[in-house]
Each structure stands twice: as structure tokens, then as C-alpha cells.
Amino acid sequence: MDKANYIAEAERQLSDERLYKKLDYDPTSELSSKISTALQTMHNDGHIDKDTIGYSKPEKAKPDRLYLLPKIHKVNNPGRPIVSGNGLPTEKISEFVDFHLRSYVENLTSHIQDITDYLRKMESMNPLPLETLLVTLDVTSLYTKIPHDDRIQSCREIWARATL
Asked: Can you give the pTM of this predicted structure?
């Protein structure tokens, strides 16, 4: 994809106000400050230890960056948007949550790690039950469409089951 088409595709996607909101300022330092304050409050309340604060506290945070991976198998090669979270104020907190929930998520029957895992699971079900209906989906902007509150509730439910 040449540079002009790449930029046009990025601008097309970013102009979709259902998925993206244009800000008048960079909130990165403000968010970093709020996270640091919240971590200190959690420590003061006895919810996390000093090592967790040290690991999770944002340092030299930067805003996320969007780039596109052209879908070469589709007409006009639309871009698959990738938002890099490296360096975000929430990066270390995300790693912390992932570390503590990963083993529980991986044990859910609905979890599929990758295509190899999917094929292995399909092979183990051979033959498929007669009432099985196989479908495929092409989801557009998957992560921007999952409501934040639903994500948080899912994490709470997994954690509650894990700590029983």
C-alpha cells in the first residue's frame, strides 16, 4: 500500500465517530497522575503492596499509536487497525491483570488461543454432533465495540470463580 492510500485509509477509519473521539489535548500525563494517586490509595487501604505500586506506576508514559495492517485478501485492501499500547499509563496495570487472570481465562471452555488450538479442539470433537452449525464471522472494530462495563464485569466473574 502506498503512503497516500495508507494515510487516506487511516483518516477514513479515525473519522468514524462511533469508534473514535477526537480530543483537543493529550490526556496522557493527567491519566498517569490519576493512576498514581489511585495506586497510592489502594496501597494505603491495604489492597496492594509497595512492590505492586512500583511495578504498576506509570513512568515516562506516552499516548497510544495507531497503525494499519492492510488486508490484502480484501477489495481495496482496507486496513486492520492496530492500537499499540506500549508505554501507555495503563500498560503495567494491564500486564498485572493479564498475569493474574490468564490461567483462569485459558481454562474456560470457550477460550481459543489461536488457529492451531481451534483445529485441535475441532479434531477432538470429530465427528461433530449432527445439530452442530458452523459459522464464521468477520467482526469490525471488535475491541472498540465491547462495552467497558461488560469487560470489567467479566473480569470480576472470572476472579470470583477463581477465588472460590
From this structure: 0.73
